[in-house]
Amino acid sequence: MGFLLIAFVWLLFSAAQQVAAAPYAAMVIDARTGEVLHSRNADTRLHPASLTKMMTLYIAFEAVRNGEITLDTPVRITKKASSEPPSKLGLRTGQTIAFRYLIRAAAVKSANDAATAIGIAISGSEAAFARRMTRTAKAMGMSRTTFKNAHGLTESGHLSTARDMTTLGRHLLYDYPQYYNLFSRQSTHAGIKTVPNTNRRLLAAYKGADGIKTGYTRAAGFNLVASAKRKDERVIATVFGGKSGASRNAKVAELLDMGFRRAPSRAPIRKPARPAYAGNAGLGVSVAGLSGAPKTSLRPVLRPVAGTVQVASVAETAAKNGDRIQNGIAAAIAAATDGTPRPAARPEDLVLASTDPAPEPEQEVVTRLSTSGGHLWGVNVGRYTTRYEAEKVLLKTALSEMTTLEGTLRKVNQSTRGFEATFQGMTREQADLACRRLQARNVTCFMIGPS
Q: Measured on CA atoms in the order 7, 13, 16, 20, is the torsion positive or negative?
């Protein structure tokens, strides 16, 4: 017994020494401009641990945006995914779960089984997904990062830097703002259970903190990429090699404070350029501009369900409604799918139009709401002089009133009087409740009936 006790104490001491020995690195930037406010060992290649999942999630958002998969696609769990070590959601081999719940589990719980399932669902294997992760990192300018898996557990060659992970955090913030609220949730329902946020202590303790991702392995130590916003200022801080969760959080808070002291009170927002979409590189698929019908479908084949629409019908609807999409692109999509019916996308699966003043046509998705279930009502939250202003108000309103507006379609309708910001696809009762809740917060709102 004495020998076992000594061995146990030695193992604890050894583990503590390894954590303490994890190299330290840090980076602080002004998120608005990308200006570096502080750095230490920022370009040293280290183990990122679960910070890796930021890239897994980035590609998940990218895949939804480009029609490779939807948030409601049922994903069958493989033995590889279910056998990942904790932290995990508890997925079982052979079960199916909606893609959205895998995203929630990976973002909030930092579930390794969910991260692996995401990678396999998108790329067919974790190895192929890791190669895509690395390609995307290079396209972002993360020049010293190489991924070998989707979850971040220690593996030879799986390395990144504080600078690269800070860059990735900034891209998550600006490239996919419609999903960013995931990282600030104290907990979330992940399909089979409610899971707590691994970053909840910092979120609760630091004023303005709203993300992004924690990480820990013995080789990496305690890592964290954190973002916080105060008035018009936003700072992102990254720490590698913390000695404990508490000391890491204290260090990140110190770095965020430093960032807010050094950042100017006002600065222009210079969003990073979205990396080129290369998700299908090596598959013989022509994506850029949809210049021709791809030989390989970008969308997993889904079983037809009630309320499906033909892609050709979508193109006709777009032409009638005057939505901004080129006839050539609509025709190419119709030809590419060869008229195969597909389920209509749920409104939250749509990609929000860019918040940049200059619109990006390739980000638009044209859809048609189902007329089933009486979801023919909507609400109008104001008329604005530019499309950008209307889209900005829609995003802000959707995030502030998620309870009643979840599942609605955000749409800007242009008229001779300006740009109308609307939420569509609601029942009369839902529209009435949403308007009453918005008006209680002094938000302009009136109901729109079936036309």
A: negative
- Which residue of the set 87, 88, 109, 110 is catalytic? 110
For 109-163, what is each residue's pLDDT tens digit?
Answer: 999 999 999 999 999 999 999 999 999 999 999 999 999 999 999 999 999 999 9
List of long-range contacts for 435-438, beta carbons under 8 Å, 24+ apart: 435/379, 437/401, 437/403, 437/404, 438/379, 438/381, 438/397, 438/401
Tokens of 225: 């990429």
* Distance, CA of 231 to chain centre: 23
278 pLDDT tier (thresholds 50, 70, 90): confident
Pick the closest to residue 65 from 271, 298, 281 (CA basis).
298
pTM comes to 0.62
Active-site residue (options: 50, 82, 123, 354): 50
Task: Give the pLDDT score at 443.
Answer: 86
- Selecting among 53, 88, 109, 148, the annotated active-site residue is 53
Residue 110 annotated in active site: yes
Question: Which pair of tokens denotes residue 35?
Answer: 């200006």
Q: Do the Cβ atoms of 397 and 405 come closer than 8 Å?
A: yes
- Amino acid making up residue 376: L
What CA–CA distance (Å, rounded) separates 96 from 74?
A: 6
271 catalytic per annotation: no
> What does the longest C-alpha to C-alpha distance in the chain come to?
86
Pick from 100, 62, 54: nearest CA to 363:
62
Through-space distance between the first and last CA atoms of the chain, rounded to whole angstroms:
80
Give the model's pLDDT for residue 54: 98
Band (407; pLDDT cuts 50, 70, 90): confident
Catalytic residue status for 83: no
Bridge partners, residue 195, by sequence: 188
pLDDT tens-digit map of 48-58 = 999 999 999 99
Q: Report d(CA 73, CA 80) in Å as an integer.
A: 19
Asked whether 328 and 96 are in contact (CB, 8 A), the reply is no
Task: For residue 237, give both structure tokens.
Answer: 């801080």
